[in-house]
């Protein structure tokens, strides 16, 4: 290892320590925050969006959300949607939802996910995390068969609690890592050190396309059960994948089902996922799919050249795409 490389690693570790230290300080403040004060801060502001008061509140909430949820909160409803409730747990997703409501986590995708769930008869969600989209989807489609797969045990426990809190009984929760070929009954699941307090990223290390910035600093490795994705596909007509760099492998293993059944597919497309992007192009070119980016009130047909090279988040404000055999969803 050269001196420059060693210096870079030391600097990287120092930045991580500062980041974690700042998070701990903010967490200490937020945990002691009275619930009544937090509720006023996260609720609607009686002022125009561009007013100084509104911008100041948003800036304060942006700081507070990094500290989690006040310790006095056991469960909470979204301030902009009181129908659903969620537990207080160490999860970046839940922290965002507590402070930002439905605008806190993938807001462009959410209404389309609910719409496609209502149209589906059998739903498979790979990478359920703490169950936010699971609760939303199963509530929108209570009569659909719903399988949710989540490998990280801590996230799965929170997912199960959120399902119970919302009286959702239609979901079969599978606590396992979905893999392309289950050659072994178990696989290793890696958790980066800066995710231990708020687990959002947990990934299978083999053949991953997870960006390096999200996969470095792994200090925890768990052995978890594996489930072959092909074993849970029969009958599925709506498929969602958010599996931290394994999307290309699971879609490739599902190719026969995609070609014959033509399910609607919702898939996260992170930067640098070359194989996933090329596979989506192949599905559109060879298997009759069309690719759309969700907007708040519409779907935009995505040019395949954009898919291969563009940063979807920078260009469209969203990292998910929707694959459908329907050619005119954007109308």
Walk me through what this model shows:
By secondary structure, the protein is of the alpha/beta class. The chain has helices at residues 3-31, 35-42, 52-64, 92-100, 110-119, 132-140, 153-165, 212-215, 247-253, 255-261, 274-286, 304-309, 312-316, and strands spanning 75-78, 81-87, 122-126, 145-149, 171-174, 177-179, 186-192, 203-204, 218-228, 238-241, 264-268, 290-294, 299-301, 320-324. 40% of the residues lie in helices and 21% in strands. It has an 8-stranded mixed β-sheet with strand order 5-4-3-10-11-14-12-13. A 4-stranded mixed β-sheet has the order 6-9-7-8, with no helix packed on it. It has a two-stranded antiparallel sheet with strand order 1-2. A hairpin with a 2-residue loop joins strand 1 and strand 2 (81-87). It is globular, with a radius of gyration of 20 Å. The mean pLDDT is 88.
N- to C-terminal distance: 56 Å
Poorly predicted segments: none
Shape: globular
Number of strands: 14
- SS element count, helices: 13
Largest sheet: 8 strands, mixed
Please tell me how large the radius of gyration is.
Answer: 20 Å
Please state roughly what percent of the residues sit in beta strands, choosing from under 5%, 5-15%, 15-25%, 25-35%, 35-45% or over 45%.
15-25%
Spatial order of the strands forming the largest sheet: 5-4-3-10-11-14-12-13
Helix content: 40-55%
Mean pLDDT: 88
SSE series: HHHEEHHEHEHEEEEHEEHHEHEEHHE
Q: Strand pairing plus helix content: what structural class?
A: alpha/beta
